[in-house]
Amino acid sequence: MFVTTIDLGDEKNVHPKDKLPIELDLALLAEKHTLIRNVVSEGAILKVVKAQNNTLIISFKKAQGF
What we know:
- The protein is α+β, with helices and mostly antiparallel strands and 66 residues long.
- The protein has one helix at 20-34; strands at 45-52, 55-61.
- The model has no long low-confidence stretch (mean pLDDT 82).
């Protein structure tokens, strides 16, 4: 299990200043897998990347609304 934080920080600094979103993500993950509760604990998951005419087409699982 892991929590992705790449979307939370500065692109030039891997240590985001705002730690609260990371804490909330970790808490949801623990709640789902430790307490066996039905909560959404992860975001979009990479499904496939295709090259098409000098463009990359990226598809995700669990990415409704984006």
